[in-house]
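Still learning. Show one?

>
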Amino acid sequence: MTMELDWERLNAIFSPRQDILDGIKRCAETPGKVALFNEIASHIHTKLAENGEPETKRRKVQAGPTTNGSTNGASSAGNPADGPILLQVKEISVSVPQRKKFELCFTRDFLYARLPGTTTPIQAMTYAWSDIEFAFYLPVPEKTQVQHNYVLFPRGSTTPPKSGPVTIEPLVFTVPATAPKEGTIGGSEAGSAAAVSDTFKGLFHWAFNRRLRAAGSDVHIVASDPNKFHSMVRQPHRPNEKAVHVGAFRGSKDGYLFFLESGILWGFKKPLIFIPLKRIAAMSYTNILQITFNVVIEVFPEEEGDANDEYEFGMVDQQDYGGIDDYVKRNGLQDRSMAEQRKGKLQLAENKGKRGADGDAANGAGDGMTELERAALGEDMDDDDEDEEDYAPGSDDGSGGSGESSDEDDEDEDDDDDVDDDAGDDDEGDGEGDEEVGAASCVMNASTTMLLSEKHKYNFLTVDAQIRRLIVVVFSILALFLFGAPSISTTSTAVLSSLAQQQQQQQQQRDKTHPAPATTTTMSSIRRAAPMVFTPSGRHTATVIFIHGLGDSGHGWADAVQQWQGRNKLNEVKFILPHAPAIPITMNAGYQMPGWFDIKSIDTLSHAAGTAPDEDAAGIELSRAYIYSLVQAEVAAGISSDRIVLGGFSQGGAMSIFAGLTAPFKLGGIVGLSSWLLLSRTFKDRVPAEGLNRDTPVFMGHGDRDPLVLYPLAQASEKKLTELGYKVTFKTYP
């Protein structure tokens, strides 16, 4: 008979160290080595039993004393397996620390998990009742069938260690909304438990409260309450229920934030984080984009004298800003979004990514990484755990387990047909294409941003077929401008060159008269990456210059162009996607991000046209001069200016409208998506006397629930332009 490794004992000893277990598996290639490993495991197991403490408990005591001052002796009550089992619940799907089905056993002093058919507790899943610091009962997000996770945090496990291996982890297991199956409950208290076992919730709430109170603990189970906090994002799986979680990313790992009465929890993938309210020094918002923003939680250190810690969670939906901000104010948490200490931070990895090839990423303070990047470095530490066998919470109803994610069905073939059909409709000019756009209002309401990272990409073209259809419509509008606009004589290259020189001279004169503060970007100090250029496959007869929004880059719209060109559409059109330079954004605490001009306050995007305070006129004019230089280069290459379309999104759309309508040359068309009119108080005075673009077609598209560039601002902008005699087509997307 072949000798085998004693995996039950090895797992019990080394379960926190998967690397050791993997090494043993690789090296146990001969019967002699197998016997040696088994002898080592037996020796360690015997020593642990003699010491009367599980390994994880001993490590925790070495790391520092407990803080509850408990003297009931539960933490040193001996081997957990020696105590009689008061309650046993079988077939429980655990996701943390290990992803497998276990039996949960309740004794007087301990809660532990064990494999079915065994009597040995799993050392990494053994918890003294007196060590449990926090307990939660939370719904599992994105499940058709209702499921909940119980989350227990022992002391020392609420946040991951700054260095070194994880020595103790919380316990997370999933229960359905049904009653336990017959025969799954045992132990000396099974009879009493039967009276409260109509649901798993009734059973476990009763059991946990009973054992915690018996251990002298005042910990109570905290549940989410939609009346105190709920997300504004509609749940696709259970649309009639309010979601009590907020989707977010930490590094490149997706998860969920729960804003609870006792603190903020991040789950349900390792490492879980719980930050009690009493430890939160401040909360702030960074990387504010059109559809997302980041939440930064500053946490008081555990040891006096240490610096505060920061935990950063990215890609939070803008729809949830109001609810999160209410939570901050209701709990008296200080909002430090405008704190001086946040100025000068390096740009987040989600906005740098591969497009930061000029080496700026190497110039950060310390390790040059944000909290999100540091989290990403450890993202693979537990990936192997995700696929452990026998783990299937919710398998009875097919809804999957906690913390799992499933891939979307591949609909590329259907999407391709839809795109072709929509393009044809738009070219013919009937109303069906507009109905397709209305179905895709998510782009105009929440807008479309592509975030690039060295670790991952969020590509809006892969998210939804409706978004793809809208992109087709946008470029169909551009095509209409290019091939339907009347031909008017083009301003010569000399005029364009003179204009660029004039803009530079004006800026230099302003710099001399009013020296710019340190945070202001001047013409001489600006650094620009070369724009992305997509050359036409046919003879070049027209050009589209499309300008991205705040925090994005030209890369964010590259896939749309590539998809269009891949279908052999507009083969004679050259596409230019410029990149904004990284500049300090006052609205975002001086944080540097790609922008065409500074935004002083979020109120700038909330006022009706003509009343916005303190616009960055100098920055706007600088970007206008740069856009004109792109037009100048195209004219020099032989393309008439009335065969050039300026288009853009959000900040880029605002620049397109402003630069296009004030240009001293005739354009083929102007497109502004989720945009507004810049410098509206003095706009009329900035238009050349010739008014060459008075008849140029202008298209403005806006969602009536846009959370950042508010709909009334777009309406007021369109009204003002119409009153000034411009031909504006304004499309509202509900």
